[in-house]
Specification:
The chain folds into 2 domains: about 20-240 and about 580-605, Dipeptide-binding Protein, Domain 1 (Dipeptide-binding Protein, domain 1); about 330-575, Dipeptide-binding Protein, Domain 3 (Dipeptide-binding Protein, domain 3), CATH 3.10.105.10. Residues about 1-40 and about 515-520 have low confidence and may be disordered. By secondary structure, the chain is of the alpha+beta class. It is built from 17 helices and 24 strands. About 25% of the residues lie in helices and about 20% in strands.
Length: about 600
């Protein structure tokens, strides 16, 4: 099921209630999630459920290397080692009190420090979760943040001046600047799990557990060992390290084809888990997934929007169907680092022309059957008051081939509709092609996207045709998600060599929001998911002002600026059509604010 993007949820809303939950929220192991409100009286206490995924995880240690951007790793690890703060409680835009690992977080009046009390939970081996597990995580990242995929400049742990543990369940974290507490709780701590210090603080498989993380050399050795073990896919289900979890499930099987199985953690401290086994099935195409649903061998999955006519048939075969209006935006990554075309992409008018040629309303109506956000900018329309008037009105770049052609001609390009447009006026003047663009430069790009989804194939073919109206030639390249992201992920701010960072355009899919839509991971110069190297000082300032403050007007300024500046090309984001066996309870309400699904909330009705 398409419930995640790269790793963790990235964003959250200024006016939502995460701040209140962060400051005074309390929940122990007895607290109930809203998903379980209807379980009384008709619940089977066991069961196996199967899920469908379009790609496979390749790393199990929760702190993947900086070059590993396989988003499906989060699907694997979140059920084993949940993050400290979990976004969304069913359909409510709050920090989830049941799924999160803290019972309270209290901020100092200056918003530069907080005290977090951890729940009195246990690891699967019976050992208690303590504040030492948090300091273990902090120490590992303190000395290894450069090789952590979810690090962004200035964030955790480099924003921490000190950490203390006054007792076994309490930590005090002092920061080097004031933050918007809601932002920090939802977006920063949302990336951080607890790890079992008593089992993982070792430098080799045969070595003894110690306190190695408390020195720089020891922390580096432990981190290197865990990362090496974490990439060994053949031992995901057998390595003793990965048997010590605090989540609702343990990993009991991992097959070479990417299918893996969870078994309920008998020592899970949260609510009762009814699905005792969860089989995560890998399907290379949406057609294969639909065939499995039709055959009755798959319990939950998704219905492609181009196959909505199958809905009634699936219902007659015992499935329920719901639409999930995702809090997400979809886009095309642009590689500003590319040595052949990076200078072209750096010209805003080029990106504007390309966006002017994408007929987003037609994608929504003809390809997604009307079930999609129109993609007018970086914020989905279901964010209500946080959607700017500019986005509500259709965004700054409505479909207009004539506008695109005029833009290119006015900047020194010989436009050849259905051919290839070339630069005839190199230079940096207002009527020239722009810095770094040579005479004869062609508007010809390789456009990559994941294979296996027919509606996406249709959209990309349509975009290819529309861009040709202004002589912009797109060569489509499709491959399995894991193959593509393995190439895209080699590009980082620190290293983006042409030999391994040669991609040009990449449609990865949608990018989920949590509760705080600030764009820090995607559009900030040093953002974790700024895969193409976009850099704009004004954008950075607007993002930082939103991260560290709580002024809704500042957020709207950021939103409009991002919509206009096109750090990525905006696309419609289709709704997600859930298909699940009708006797599965707890499936609804869904959680649009998190990147993960929650089989621990499900049960079979008796």
């Amino acid at each position: 099921m398409r419930k995640i993007r790269l790793a963790a949820a990235i964003l959250a809303a200024l006016t939502l209630t995460a701040g209140a939950a962060a400051c005074s929220g309390s929940s122990g192991s007895g607290s109930g999630s809203s998903n379980k409100g209807s379980t009384a009286g008709g619940v089977k206490h066991t069961g196996t459920v199967s899920l469908a995924w379009p790609a496979t995880p390749d790393f199990i240690f929760p702190f993947a290397p900086a070059t590993n951007t396989d988003g499906y790793n989060g699907n694997l690890t979140n059920e084993l080692w949940p993050v400290l703060t979990y976004s969304g409680d069913g359909g409510q835009s709050i920090v989830n009190p049941q799924e999160s690992l803290f019972s309270s977080i209290t901020w100092a009046p200056d918003d530069k420090s907080f005290t977090m009390v951890l729940k009195s939970w246990k690891w699967s081996d019976g050992q208690p979760i303590t504040s030492r597990d948090f300091t273990f995580v902090y120490n590992l990242l303190k000395y290894n943040w450069q090789n952590w995929v979810n690090y962004f400049q200035g964030g955790f742990p480099t924003d921490v001046t000190s950490v203390s543990a006054p007792n076994e369940h309490t930590v005090v974290v002092n920061l080097n600047q004031a933050y918007n507490p809601a932002y920090y709780v939802d977006t920063i701590l949302n990336e951080v799990p607890l790890l079992p210090q008593h089992a993982w603080d070792k430098e080799s498989a045969s070595g003894a557990v110690g306190n190695y993380d408390e020195t720089a050399a020891g922390a580096k050795a432990v981190y290197a060992f865990l990362q090496k073990q974490g990439g060994d896919m053949a031992t995901f289900a057998t390595n003793p390290l990965w048997k010590v979890v605090d989540g609702p499930y343990t990993l009991s099987q991992f097959q070479p084809n990417g299918t893996y199985t969870y078994t309920a953690n008998p020592n899970y401290s949260g609510n009762k888990v009814y699905m005792t086994k969860v089989v995560n099935e890998f399907y290379t195409t949406d057609v294969a997934e639909l065939d499995a649903l039709r055959a009755g061998v798959l319990d939950t999955g998704s219905l492609p929007l181009n196959d909505l006519q199958q809905a009634n048939l699936l219902k007659s075969e015992g499935y329920s169907i719901t639409a999930d209006d995702l809090n997400a935006f979809a886009s095309v990554y642009v590689n500003f680092w590319n040595p052949q075309v990076g200078a072209v992409f750096n010209q805003l008018y080029i990106r504007q022309a390309m966006e002017d040629l994408i007929n987003r309303p037609q994608i929504v109506s003809k390809i997604y059957s009307g079930d999609a956000d129109p993609g007018n900018g970086p914020v989905p329309l279901n964010f209500g008051s946080l959607v700017s008037p500019l986005e509500k009105s259709g965004g700054p770049y409505p479909y207009s081939p004539s506008t695109a052609i005029s833009l290119l001609k006015s900047h020194g390009w010989n436009v050849v509709p259905n051919g290839v447009t070339t630069c005839t006026s190199p230079g940096t003047g207002p009527a020239d092609c722009g810095a770094g663009i040579k005479a004869g430069q062609q508007l010809s790009f390789v456009y990559a996207y994941p294979s296996g989804v027919e509606s996406v194939n249709q959209m990309e073919a349509a975009i290819q045709s529309w861009e040709e109206q202004a002589g912009i030639k797109l060569t489509l390249k499709t491959a399995p998600f894991n193959s593509l992201i393995g190439t895209i992920g080699t590009c980082t701010q620190a290293s983006h060599p042409a030999s391994t960072c040669g991609w040009q355009l990449f449609n990865e899919g949608y990018q989920p929001y949590a509760l705080y839509p600030t764009g820090n991971q995607n559009f900030n110069t040093n953002g974790t998911y700024n895969l193409g190297g976009y850099s704009n000082p004004e954008m950075d300032t607007l993002i930082n002002d939103t991260d560290y403050g709580n002024n809704a007007a500042t957020f709207l300024q950021y939103e409009n600026y991002a919509a206009e500046q096109l750090p990525q090309l905006w696309l419609p984001d289709s709704d997600f059509i859930n298909v699940y066996k009708s006797d599965i309870g707890g499936f609804l309400p869904g959680n649009p604010f998190s990147e993960a699904i929650n089989p621990e909330d499900w049960y079979y009705s008796s």
